[in-house]
Amino acid sequence: MSACARGRRAAGWYGAWLLAHVGAAGAPAGHLEPFGSWAPGKPIKEWTSLPSPLEFFEHCQLDGGASEPVLMRGAAKGMPAMDWTSDEYLLEKFGGSKISGVEYDLKETRVGGQVPGMRVLRDFLSKYNTTDIYMVSQIPKEMRQDVKFLPFLRCGGYLDFLDVANLWIGRGGSKSVVHYDDQDNINCMFSGRKRFIFMHPKYKREFEAHPNTAKNRFGWVDADLDKNVKGYGAFFGNLDVDRVDLINLPGWSEVEYSYAELEPGDCLYIPYQWYHQAADAEL
Ligand SMILES: *[C@@H]1O[C@H](CO)[C@@H](O)[C@H](O)[C@H]1NC(C)=O
User: Fold this and answer.
1) HSE (CB half, 13 Å, CA atoms) of 38?
2) Considering only CA atoms, which residue is closest to atom 6 of ligand 1?
3) Any residues with Cβ below 6 Å from ligand 1, and which?
4) Average pLDDT score over the chain
5) What pLDDT digit, counting tens, does each position of 80-117 carry?
6) What pLDDT is stored for residue 156 in this prediction?
7) Is the dihedral of CA 95, 129, 235, 196 positive or negative?
8) Number of separate helices (H) and strands (E) present in the chain
9) What pLDDT is recorded for position 12?
10) Tens of pLDDT, residues 57-67
């Protein structure tokens, strides 16, 4: 159902909505454009100095436990990983370090699969400029000491619950699916630029209703519910993040989102269950 069809049924109030959101050709604003183009969104909260462990804990409890994403400008500036700026440097220091995952395609689809023959960092770096692949691997052992825990995580309560430390490397142009994680996430940028888009977990019921069917208005699929669905896990698998079809997935036009742009040295807190998408923003 298109925005126009809905506008005809509801009077008055919808008139203003239509003027604001329907483009000249009658298609909803942002139709067939990149994810987030239907509205401007708003920037997430920024911290210019880091919280204490207690302040961070309290931040995590806000909004009934939903909390909210925060951009921590410059929080990684003192980490040795800020020197990971050239392939030459990485090859010389860590070329022989074991890696655990390289996937096909710059655009994550969860159907590309693992690239064979990727044993050490050198295997990846020698191919990634000329092939559409990206690395998402546990941080190789030798590289781990270059990445520090942010000061507010350096105490028992947090350290007891650490799950995994991953490293993403791409040559540019890569982007993720829209999804959520069941863990809190701290994401630091050492080189390049990345844009994240966030949606509040309050949308869960709407977003995930009738998974894997045309009745879902957002493109949510749950591969674990249906063997015919490609990929793994639950995510917006019927949504093309480069060209959002707002006629077949009309729910998005009314979704409010926030966003953050990470530069080298910035870290981000992504609370668990917040829907998000990451995309290269280097251009
Ligand atoms: C990949 O391309 C970048 C950008 O042109 C270059 O700086 C880098 O050295 C290349 N890496 C390899 C391993 O050739």
Assistant:
1) 27
2) 87
3) 87, 125-126, 129
4) 90
5) 999 999 999 999 999 999 999 999 999 888 888 899 99
6) 83
7) positive
8) 8, 13
9) 36
10) 999 999 999 99
Q: Which residues of 58-74 are buried (b: 16+ CB within 10 A; e: fewer)?
A: ebeeeeeeebbbbbbee
Mutate to test the pocket of ligand 1, among 84, 87, 122, 282 (most ligand atoms within 8 A of CB): 87
Token digits for 27? 């298609």
Chain CA centroid to CA 89, Å:
27
Q: Residue 138 and residue 140: Cα distance in Å, rounded? A: 6
Please name the amino acid found at residue 251: G
Which residue in this structure is represented by tokens 């490293």? 167
Find the mean pLDDT for residues 148-154: 94
Ligand 1 mean position to 87 CA, how many Å?
6
In the predicted model, what is the mean pLDDT of residues 251-276?
Answer: 98
Q: Rounding to the nearest 10 degrees, give the CA dihedral for residues 163, 271, 192, 42.
A: 170
pLDDT, residue 7, reads 31
C-alpha closest to that of 197 among 15, 31, 42, 3: 42
In a mutational test of the pocket of ligand 1, which residue from 86, 126, 127, 129 has the highest number of ligand atoms less than 8 Å from its CB? 129
What tens digit of pLDDT does each residue of 24-48 get?
A: 568 999 999 999 999 999 999 999 9
Close Cβ partners of 71 (under 8 Å, ≥ 6 residues apart): 43, 44, 45, 46, 47, 260, 262, 266, 267, 268
